Amino acid sequence: MLRERVSDMRAHDLVAPFPTVTLDLPVEQAARLLADQDLPGLIVLDERGRPFSILPGTQVLRLAVPRYCQDDPALARVIDEAHADTFLRALGERTVRDSLPGRPRELPVTDPDATLLEVAALMARTHSPVVAVVDGGELLGAITLQALMDRLVGT
Amino acid sequence: MLRERVSDMRAHDLVAPFPTVTLDLPVEQAARLLADQDLPGLIVLDERGRPFSILPGTQVLRLAVPRYCQDDPALARVIDEAHADTFLRALGERTVRDSLPGRPRELPVTDPDATLLEVAALMARTHSPVVAVVDGGELLGAITLQALMDRLVGT
């Protein structure tokens, strides 16, 4: 019975390898990684290899949008078009560390024994399509929204 | 020159057909649509066929998580496992309308003439990997985070 099997499932059953980036990586490279691998987000590790932040894709994009455009639609509209596409280049050597917003209240990080319902609630609450699974400080991988949804609806 | 071509781009150049759901659709079917088609989110239309809400995938998931579990990780952990996987079924005929949170301050909706920088800023600000493109009240389609990122990094 699929239902039975799902009900026994824990995070460790759904976790899969997931690319990580470091705080010192240039934002441009982080954006390229996201695009090239069709990732729903990125896991940012600290110096000890632990999750420092989990960035949903929209917030990786945010790192690459000039600050003066982020909150002003009108400004983004009138920016000289010839310059609009150069914003990735304009980032230069700006790193993920330089661009990160303040740390959120709650990181989408859980442990291998979390129930699927717990992972679902965490994803919903943190608005993150990526949840990192950590065991005793060691990153095991991640559960994506897609993987979780597939399991929950039984596809 | 790729750069030149990107700089001339507007929302109408990137917009693509995107599935929509109505307010009367059962949440279970909305969740299945998201999973089956690997969508980053859903566009919810009102009775007149205009975007009523744009739900990122994490918030479609949220519709399907019992309210009593949404904000209490401890509760989601101790819920009887045999019941945890039945939550999609437990939704019964609950519709998208019944489950929607209050309308957000700003919907990720733009017009065909928006610059790519404008679309990027809108995605980042609304935390939505889907932006609906509307022309005179008519939904033309959507721009996904993936499509935008691919264009911006030139893959």
UniProtKB/TrEMBL annotation, chains A, B:
A Pfam family per the record: CBS
Domain CBS residues, every copy: 102-155
GO MF annotations in UniProt: kinase activity
Keyword field: CBS domain, Kinase, Transferase
SUPFAM superfamilies, A to Z: CBS-domain pair
Annotated TM spans: none
Domain of life: Bacteria
The protein's name in its UniProt record: Histidine kinase
Species of origin: Planotetraspora thailandica
